[in-house]
Structures are given as structure tokens and as C-alpha cells.
Write a structure and sequence with these properties.
Number of helices of chain B: 11
Number of domains of chain A: 2
CATH class of one domain in chain B: Mainly Alpha
Largest sheet of chain A: 6 strands, mixed
Number of strands of chain A: 11
Oligomer: heterodimer
CATH superfamily of one domain in chain B: ABC transporter involved in vitamin B12 uptake, BtuC
Order of helices and strands of chain B: HHHHHHHHHHH
Distance between the termini of chain B: 53 Å
Largest interface: A-B, 31 and 29 residues
Helix content of chain B: over 70%
Radius of gyration of chain A: 18 Å
Chain lengths: ~250, ~280
């Protein structure tokens, strides 16, 4: 499978605070990577580097330009970036996901609006297309932002802690939806909720300043010990079990 | 003196002024209210008074001095707050008073000429020149063109700047350009409503509109209409009652806001189904 992008010895910092160090990481076209790690370990920073929002201090990121450009990545941020009291409708927000394809003076065509309508109903938001964000529940809002991320049919979808706002009634549908999307795009999902995501991902990357990629969805205690990944693990398996331990 | 022609000219000037003021204030006002930068705009307004003072002192058109001060302070605050070198509200608070201080010092220092300070602080239609009206007219065209052509780009950047950065490299250009146009709009409207009152000309109409709709484009349209109603009514009342025009316009706009709020409340109360114009 073709690679989508490759990070070579990437280091990134906020001021003098080194957050990512010597990261080598490659994502291929069909992968579903769970990015786990402790708070402050650099999970969101990794996404920012991929999106071009943060310039790495050293190293380079190479995109497979036939498949992907840095500006054509689907991105679901942690919910706070947009002002939920801003006077925009659900349709407007979803349409903004097409702006990567448009130039600055573009108008939205009827086809664009139909597409927005389709994505909106696909995510169970029918009837809310004319609503404004402040009329929605947290879970509905999250789905609006997911719709914005996927309307452009990206080859790579980045999800930053999507579990935080998915309401429990929609949770199964949400992961089912991701599985479906994964057939046509690679997914990189940041989460601290290892238990929930391990049932859905194909591989995982543990990040705590350094990154360790593990090409399997089974996260074992030994892996985490070896990688120095200090997180709490709760995995689902044939026999449900919980591992609670602090790792060095 | 031919009073009919004098009155005719007075009416035309007032009417054109009202139209252009409502268009510019409606477009710029919806932007600053939606983006919650009303306080920043207050800072720009008062900083521009420094430019008025310096304009008088060195003998150029004070509006030009105000425009330079307004735009520079707007860009300065945006830049500093992006760099996070300073707390934005503190920066605005300082600039606010600094602009007023500079303005008063230079007007005081201007030799042999004492401009009508009151007309700049509170607005006066009598000092509005034909050139002011033309400038406001041109500003209306520029804003209609700018918001018309770049509507979605401006909307999306101001709604979610961080997300816009993931697909566009024009975010900063648009942010600074729009803020500059807001500053220019404020400065050109100072002649009508004065430094102290002009901000309300921008902020009250969108707040009237937002009682009935939460869709950006409709807020603009209804702001322009509400602004026009308030300006013309206020202008007429001030003419016949012989009271200051800027203050009367703002007073009228607040009354319209209160009436709209009351109307909305009554509609909600007396209809079983809540009415909300989308």
C-alpha cells in the first residue's frame, strides 16, 4: 500500500519546550492508527505538524503528492476551536470543509450544497441543516465538525479526541461510521481512551515526546513497558480485563 | 437666502449620509459583533482621536490623521495579541486612553485655532462636508464588493481561524485587511456620530437583527435596514427638536432595539409554537 506521508527525524517545540523529538513515522493508505500517550505527550502537536500549523524545528515531512497535500487533510479538532455562538448554520459549517478545494472567491454550487445535505443526513443530523451551532447538543456539534472534515473526501482523516463529545447513544454509530470511512481513507485518531479505541483501530502509535509505532491493534502491557508509555490501559478482549499500572 | 434650496441640500445630505452610514456600519458591525471584537473596535475608535489632534496640529485633514491612527492601532493590537506578547484587553485599554490623550494635547497645542472639539466627540451633521459623504459612499461600495466577493472566505476565517489555517495560507491577510476596513469604517462615521458614540452605530443594528435571525447574511441585511431606520428617524427628530444628531440617532437605535426585544417576547408568549425566523 502506498504511503500517504512520511516524517523523517521530526522535532517540534513551543519556544524552548521540546514536545516532539526525532519522530520517524509513516502512514499508509488504509491504516487506522490510534495515537495514544499521556497528556502533554505531544499527541495534538503531532497533528499540528502534519497539518502544517506548526513548523518543525528540524526534520522533514514528505507527502505523497499524488494522493494527498497538506491542505487536503480532513481534520476534526478538539471542539473548542470554532466559536459555538458564531452566527453560522450547520450547512455553512459543513460547506467550509470544501474550502480546501476552492479559491478565495469561490461560491458554493448546487452540487456542493447537495453534497453537504448528504453528509449531514449520513451523520444523523437531518432536519438540523438550518440550525445554528448554539442550538445543538455537544454530540450533535461534534458530528457537524466530523461532517466538515469528511465532506471533501480526504485521503487522510485526523481526529483529535473525538470520544470527548460523542454522546453514548451515537458512540456505536460513530465508530461504525469510522470503519466505513476507513475503507476509503486512512484515519489517525488521537485519544487518551485506549480501551475504547483499541477495539476499532488497526495499529497504534504511542507518543510521549518520542513515537513508537506498533502495527497491531492489540496493546499489551509489555509493549507499553517497552515503549515507556505511562498510561492507564483498559482493553477489550474475549475475557474483559483491566490493567491499571503506572509505567516508567 | 433661499431656504428651500438650503433645506433641500440639507435633506439630501442627511439622507445620503444615513444610507451610507447604515451600509458601512451594518457590514462592519455584523463582523465585529459576530467575532466579539467590540472592545477592540472601541480601542480603535478612541485611538483615532489622537490622529484627529495631530491632523489639526500639522494642518492636514483630521480624517486622514484619524484613518492612519485607526488602522495602525488596529493592526498593532491584532499583531501583538497573535504573538501573545501582551494581554489583549490591557493593550486595548492603554491604547484607548493614549489616543484620547494625544488628541487633546495636540488640539490644545494647535496655535491660533480652536476646532470644535464637541463636533468630533459627539458628531455634528453641520460639519459633515460633501467630501465626507462621498468618502462614505466610496467606502460603502468597497465594503459591498469586499464582503460580496469574499463572503465565505471571510465568514469561515472569522468563525474558525485555526481550522481555516489548515487549508488556506491567506488567513492573516484577510484578518488584517478586514480589521483595517473596520477601522476605516469607524473613522469615516466619526463625522456623523462622534468618537464617543460611533461604536454604537456599528453594534446596535446587528444586535437588533440578532433578535430575529442567527444567520450571518441576514444579520447584515437587517442591520442595514435597522441602521437606516434609526439614522433617518434620529436625524429627523434632531432637526425638529434642535438637539445633537449623533446622540439622537443612538438614542433612537436603542429604543428600536428595546421595541424589537419586546415584540419578540410578545410573539413568543402568545404563539404556542415558538416563532423563530431562520
Amino acid at each position: 500500500m502506498d504511503f500517504l506521508f512520511e516524517m523523517n527525524s521530526i522535532s517540534a517545540a513551543y519556544g524552548t519546550n521540546m514536545v516532539l523529538q526525532d519522530i520517524n513515522f509513516k502512514v499508509t493508505g488504509n491504516d487506522f492508527v490510534g495515537v495514544i500517550g499521556p497528556n502533554g505527550g505531544g499527541k495534538t502537536t503531532l497533528l499540528k505538524v502534519i497539518l502544517g500549523l506548526l513548523k518543525p524545528v528540524s526534520g522533514e515531512i514528505v507527502f505523497n503528492n499524488e494522493l494527498i497535500q497538506s491542505y487536503s487533510i480532513g481534520y476534526l479538532p478538539q471542539i473548542s476551536t470554532g466559536d459555538v455562538n458564531y452566527p453560522v448554520t450547520v450547512t455553512d459549517v459543513v460547506l467550509s470543509g470544501l474550502m480546501m478545494r476552492k479559491n478565495i472567491i469561490s461560491r458554493m454550487t448546487q452540487a456542493d450544497k447537495r453534497k453537504a445535505g448528504n453528509v449531514i443526513s449520513e451523520l444523523g443530523l437531518s432536519g438540523l441543516s438550518a440550525a445554528t451551532l448554539n442550538e445543538l447538543s455537544g454530540g450533535q456539534m461534534q458530528r457537524v465538525f466530523l461532517a466538515r472534515a469528511i465532506i471533501g473526501d480526504p485521503k487522510l482523516l485526523l481526529l483529535d479526541e473525538p470520544g470527548n463529545f460523542v454522546d453514548s447513544t451515537f458512540e456505536n454509530d460513530f465508530y461504525e461510521k469510522l470503519r466505513e470511512l476507513n475503507k476509503r481513507m486512512a484515519i489517525l485518531m488521537v485519544s487518551h481512551d485506549v480501551g475504547t479505541i483499541s477495539a476499532h483501530i488497526k495499529s497504534f502509535a504511542c507518543i510521549n515526546r518520542k513515537l513508537h509505532y506498533h502495527p497491531s491493534h492489540e496493546i499489551t502491557n509489555d509493549d507499553l513497558l517497552a515503549y515507556g508509555c505511562p498510561i492507564q490501559v483498559l482493553t477489550h478482549g474475549d475475557i474483559p480485563h483491566t490493567v491499571l499500572k503506572t509505567h516508567k | 437666502m433661499d431656504t428651500t434650496i438650503f433645506q433641500y441640500e440639507f435633506v439630501i445630505k442627511g439622507l445620503l449620509g444615513a444610507i451610507f452610514a447604515s451600509i458601512t456600519a451594518g457590514l462592519a458591525g455584523t463582523y465585529i459583533v459576530s467575532k466579539r471584537m467590540v472592545f477592540l473596535s472601541g480601542g480603535i475608535t478612541h485611538a483615532s482621536f489622537g490622529g484627529i489632534g495631530i491632523g489639526y496640529f500639522i494642518g492636514i485633514n483630521p480624517v486622514i490623521g484619524a484613518a492612519v491612527f485607526g488602522i495602525l492601532s488596529a493592526l498593532g493590537i491584532e499583531y501583538l495579541s497573535v504573538r501573545q506578547k501582551i494581554r489583549e484587553d490591557s493593550a486595548i485599554g492603554m491604547l484607548w486612553a493614549f489616543g484620547m490623550a494625544v488628541g487633546i494635547i495636540f488640539i490644545y497645542l494647535t496655535p491660533g485655532y480652536s476646532p470644535n472639539l464637541m463636533s468630533y466627540l459627539f458628531g455634528s451633521i453641520l460639519t459633515v462636508t460633501n467630501a465626507d459623504i462621498i468618502a462614505l459612499g466610496i467606502m460603502s461600495l468597497i465594503l459591498i464588493f469586499y464582503f460580496g466577493v469574499f463572503y465565505r472566505t471571510i465568514l469561515y476565517i472569522s468563525f474558525d481561524e485555526q481550522f481555516a489555517r489548515t487549508y488556506s495560507s491567506y488567513v492573516d491577510i484577510f484578518k488584517y485587511l478586514t480589521t483595517s476596513l473596520v477601522a476605516l469604517t469607524i473613522v469615516l462615521n466619526i463625522r456623523m456620530a462622534g468618537v464617543v458614540l460611533v461604536l454604537s452605530l456599528l453594534t446596535i443594528p446587528p444586535n437588533i437583527a440578532m433578535i430575529f435571525t442567527r444567520v450571518y447574511f441576514r444579520i447584515v441585511i437587517w442591520s442595514v435596514i435597522a441602521g437606516f431606520l434609526g439614522t433617518v428617524t434620529g436625524y429627523t427628530i434632531s432637526y425638529f427638536a434642535g438637539i445633537p444628531v449623533g446622540a439622537t440617532i443612538i438614542f433612537t437605535l436603542v429604543i428600536i432595539w428595546a421595541l424589537a426585544k419586546g415584540l419578540h417576547y410578545l410573539i413568543g408568549k402568545f404563539s404556542k409554537v415558538a416563532i423563530r425566523t431562520v
